[in-house]
Amino acid sequence: MDEEKRITLRLPADLHEWLTAQAKSARRSLNSEIIHRLEVERDAVVADAESP
């Protein structure tokens, strides 16, 4: 990451619990888990847009 931006993020409690469990399972911080999932989704959208 070249530049970082701080944001405040409000999540429903059940989504927060699920993300926390997923992060723990992947041995990542909650922040890293959210970034990972967003990057995977972004890459999929870009790949979709590039396919004929």
Tally of individual helices: 2
Radius of gyration: 13 Å
Main β-sheet: number of strands, strand sense, barrel status? none
Low-confidence region ranges? none
Secondary-structure element string: HH
Helix/strand class: mainly alpha
How many strands in all? 0
Round the mean pLDDT to the nearest integer and report it: 94
Strand content: under 5%
Shape: extended
Helix coverage percent:
55-70%
Distance between the termini: 30 Å
Please tell me about this protein's structure.
65% of the residues lie in helices and 0% in strands. It has 52 residues and is mostly helical. The termini are far apart. The model has no long low-confidence stretch (mean pLDDT 94).
Q: Could you give a quick summary of the protein structure above?
A:
This protein has helices at 13-25, 30-50. It is mainly alpha-helical.
List the helices and strands and how they pair.
Elements: H1 13-25, H2 30-50
Helix pairs in contact: 1-2
List the main descriptive attributes of the protein structure presented here.
single chain, 65% helix, mainly alpha
